[in-house]
Design a protein that fits this description.
The longest helix has 17 residues. The chain has 114 residues and is mostly helical. Strands 1-2 form a two-stranded parallel ribbon. The chain contains 4 helices and 2 strands. The chain has 2 domains: 73 residues, no CATH class; 40 residues, no CATH class.
Length: 114
């Protein structure tokens, strides 16, 4: 996707869905590490990766991206944190919350459905 199209079409939706969280530019190696880590973290909670995950990984190509020395923590306040995405149905979101209740126990994770 060309940068102007991203800025006009895609980014506003991301900004809206993430509220007051600041955006940070990342090197490709760190972006890949962040995404892969989030998928592994979710998998450990019983949540499968999005159907487009493997296609997304392809944008990083096959060349070595270098080393990312950053460490990433997932969740909020040392607990899993789920935020319903703009393209997720209410039924999908409720299923994810049920999965978290099963894997973490009630009250042991945060979530936002709006």
């Amino acid at each position: 996707m060309p940068l102007p199209e991203y800025e006009k079409v895609f980014k506003p939706g991301i900004v809206k869905s993430h509220g007051d969280y600041a955006f940070t530019k990342l090197k490709p190696a760190c972006a890949l590490k962040l995404i892969t880590g989030a998928v592994e973290y979710s998998k450990g909670l019983g949540i499968n990766s999005h159907k487009d995950y493997h296609s997304l990984k392809a944008i990083f190509g096959t060349k070595k991206l270098g080393i990312c020395w950053s460490r990433y923590r997932y969740g909020k306040d040392k607990m899993p944190y789920y935020v319903k995405g703009p393209n997720e149905s209410t039924a999908d979101a409720n299923n994810i919350v049920k999965t978290l209740e099963k894997s973490c126990g009630a009250g042991n994770f945060h979530f936002r459905l709006s």
